[in-house]
Specification:
The chain is of the alpha+beta class. The protein has a domain at 5-136: Gcn5-related N-acetyltransferase (GNAT) (Aminopeptidase, 3-Layer(aba) Sandwich). It is built from seven helices and eight strands. It has helices spanning 5-8, 33-39, 44-48, 57-73, 117-131, 147-155, 184-189, and strands at residues 19-20, 23-26, 77-83, 86-94, 103-108, 137-142, 159-170, 173-183. Strands 1-2-3-4-5-6-8-7 form an eight-stranded mixed sheet, with helices on both faces. α2 crosses α4 and α5 (117-131) packs across α6 (147-155). The chain binds coenzyme A. The site of coenzyme A (COA) has 22 residues, from α3, β5, α5 and α6.
Length: 190
């Protein structure tokens, strides 16, 4: 695939923000730091994602402060997931620049799970990435056994591929992953 550099250098967060009922997505802000730290204390978040562990307030501050830089450079689109105006989790599209396929990643805090936050947020960012950015394909990586995330990926229309041995770096260790894929054509047909 050709580099996305020209097409995506300098991203602007959607305005009006992406929303679905009581769920809204906007770039992370300093006021989100306390609930980001709280969410990342749940062992399920570091278990299945690449967030630092143990996760500190400094990690959250760095994450929030990097977000506008990533948006401005077009490297990564980070969104806070809000439910009824309260922080629920994070979703992002990584690897927007370069030759690889951009990847969707997310977590939802234990207090906000099973309300459709992750699946609705994923559908929103997928629609934005295909509709507004014109990306041809998105990937999503899950570690074997992460049934929760598999449910989210399937609900958003992704198709699961075979296990890629050592397919992902998790805090310095290579781990196995399933690569889920969704093309713009398949998304448009669904
Ligand atoms: C996985 C995770 C993001 C799901 O968030 P969520 O907002 O609760 O997910 P949704 O409510 O949108 O769930 C959508 C569907 O996925 C499936 N699902 C979600 N969580 C599940 C779980 N714990 N067990 C089994 N299925 C689950 C269900 O089919 C669910 O639909 P239903 O509630 O109507 O049955 C959340 O549990 C989480 O953050 N986990 C830890 C971090 C993580 O795994 N991130 C993803 C890395 S790839």
């Amino acid at each position: 695939m050709a580099a996305h550099q020209d097409a995506f250098s300098g991203l602007t967060p959607p305005d009006p923000p992406l929303a679905d009922g009581d769920l809204l997505l906007r770039p992370p802000l300093p006021q989100d730091i306390p609930w980001i730290v709280r969410g990342c204390q749940d062992p399920e978040v570091p278990r299945w994602t690449t967030v630092p562990s143990p996760y500190t307030e400094a990690h959250a501050r760095e994450f929030v402060e990097e977000s506008p830089v990533d948006w401005a450079q077009g490297t990564e689109a980070r969104f806070a997931i809000l439910l009824d105006g309260a922080g629920a989790g994070m979703i992002g599209i990584h690897r927007l620049l370069g030759d690889g396929v951009p990847e969707v990643g997310y977590w939802v805090g234990p207090w906000a799970r099973r309300r459709g936050a992750a699946s609705r947020a994923t559908r929103l960012v997928v629609g934005w990435a295909f509709g507004q950015l014109g990306l041809p394909r998105l990937d999503l990586l899950t570690m074997p056994g992460n049934t929760g995330s598999e449910g989210v990926a399937a609900a958003a229309g992704f198709t699961r591929g075979p296990v890629e041995a050592s397919g992902c770096d998790q805090r310095g260790t290579r781990v196995d992953v399933h690569r889920w894929t969704l093309s713009r054509e398949d998304w448009a047909r669904s």
